[in-house]
């Protein structure tokens, strides 16, 4: 045994070295992998896919500006070799199988393999769709539809093609904004346009349409919807397509009616290809070199890849034109500029995520918990794993655990559903106690009210305090309660009877600030607009008091030059006192929001609308009464005040830009001086 110890030690060292080397290889990939947290931010995660092979040719046949690629059921790779006007067929190891189409194809830009192994090719220059057998024999050709419904001036320049199980051909034509063209493969009949993109109209265009004359509008360039970039069809017949440009739906999953059933936020404006995996997961390739993987419902799992900087590193692309997935979930990516195909294999981490997702989608919720928990153990920032775990807990009726997981995932809809169930369970268990407490509270209020009306304890006590100690400050603070029943009389008393005070208004301003902070950070989780654990009290304080100063100061200046009778003290005090409904009801609204779900969201919205409308009406009355304006004059003053506030904000922004540019100039001059001094 002692003699074997050195060999055992060497073996352990070797295993340790191999493990560390493997980890370094994975960590030192040329690209990083990211996922998306519950707030839509990219966070780095473990590598999901690693490059397995790089294919630059099939046998001795090189690619030239290849634009599309598909994988057949037997694992062969079909490439639209655009530059050479042909279709190349090869194996994942780079072996040449066949080529076809040289005699008819001119510039093939898209291809699709149908369910019956027919190869459909879109040719941009020929202006036709060609159908070939798997062996490369031409069996059909589809040209420009001659139907009146197609349109006399509509373009038919096929770029991409797809075919469903009913033998309906879907064609994307360059410059045809009417939608995806549908043609029946058996009869060649034009079936119509399918799912056109919505027209993207900028705010500037809306403004121009509102103020321009008919003659000016006629000279404007017509706004047409963007043409789709690529499309695909899954086994269920759902059509997937991607489009490029701003203010368009970059990814769409279309039902038979052409409606998009996918709600996905996409930050990339240049998607070029879309593919469906074995889990119904969606892969999207971007022209900039990034590959995105989404679940079937549109949740981002991974994004990896990137733009090649000229060093020819694997995993990066110069122009990513197409992606395809085989039956083993190997991902193939076609770079049209570098004329090569890179294949990616999922790592153990990606397979773990896929296993958990597969179990959940198959209804094996209990079995999916373990892999979800393992994903979280490996990466606690992988929020989608928390969402999947929460869904599994919810389906298993473990609502408290689901509530916690959804909170970690920042998944508001799931949290609302889970809290609904948790609240129902609590209500069933404590309903009698709750009823007894409410009855006791009502009885106590009635008894106290009876004794107060009979003996006037509180009134005598407050009268004694005010007469003995002359607490003017407290009287001014509690004078705000008159705003509820008699706002006009209250404003009159502030202006002419010395009721209320600027000091008391400042006290209520501080209370207003506290309620604003509590509302922002402690409203119910599903109704909150800030992220958990993130506080910006400095910025909040500056914005709050800056806005108060801007509103009050602007209104006072405008009323002063328009014969207003209110002093700054009166305007300031009246403005703050106008928030009485906010002081009275907002704390209860904040408290109740922590016990509501989306099913009762309308109650919260209604309560907030009533409070804010009430405050706005009181401010309107304050401006009118304190300055002795008519209703028309008051409206005019408010509009001018808003305009002045806009001018002040723009002026401050311009000053800020000038100061920043001046500081940058000073810093650059200083750095230049230091550089020249050091190189003397």
UniProtKB/TrEMBL annotation:
<dbReference type="InterPro" id="IPR011990">
    <property type="entry name" value="TPR-like_helical_dom_sf"/>
</dbReference>
<dbReference type="GO" id="GO:0008270">
    <property type="term" value="F:zinc ion binding"/>
</dbReference>
<feature type="transmembrane region" description="Helical">
    <location>
        <begin position="502"/>
        <end position="522"/>
    </location>
</feature>
<dbReference type="Pfam" id="PF04893">
    <property type="entry name" value="Yip1"/>
</dbReference>
<feature type="transmembrane region" description="Helical">
    <location>
        <begin position="431"/>
        <end position="451"/>
    </location>
</feature>
<dbReference type="InterPro" id="IPR006977">
    <property type="entry name" value="Yip1_dom"/>
</dbReference>
<feature type="transmembrane region" description="Helical">
    <location>
        <begin position="602"/>
        <end position="623"/>
    </location>
</feature>
<keyword id="KW-1133">Transmembrane helix</keyword>
<feature type="transmembrane region" description="Helical">
    <location>
        <begin position="542"/>
        <end position="559"/>
    </location>
</feature>
<keyword id="KW-0472">Membrane</keyword>
<keyword id="KW-0732">Signal</keyword>
<feature type="transmembrane region" description="Helical">
    <location>
        <begin position="635"/>
        <end position="659"/>
    </location>
</feature>
<dbReference type="InterPro" id="IPR011042">
    <property type="entry name" value="6-blade_b-propeller_TolB-like"/>
</dbReference>
<feature type="transmembrane region" description="Helical">
    <location>
        <begin position="571"/>
        <end position="596"/>
    </location>
</feature>
<dbReference type="InterPro" id="IPR019734">
    <property type="entry name" value="TPR_rpt"/>
</dbReference>
<dbReference type="InterPro" id="IPR050952">
    <property type="entry name" value="TRIM-NHL_E3_ligases"/>
</dbReference>
<feature type="domain" description="Yip1">
    <location>
        <begin position="483"/>
        <end position="652"/>
    </location>
</feature>
<feature type="signal peptide">
    <location>
        <begin position="1"/>
        <end position="22"/>
    </location>
</feature>
<keyword id="KW-0812">Transmembrane</keyword>
<dbReference type="GO" id="GO:0016020">
    <property type="term" value="C:membrane"/>
</dbReference>
<keyword id="KW-0802">TPR repeat</keyword>
<feature type="repeat" description="TPR">
    <location>
        <begin position="383"/>
        <end position="416"/>
    </location>
</feature>
<protein>
    <submittedName>
        <fullName>Uncharacterized protein DUF1282</fullName>
    </submittedName>
</protein>
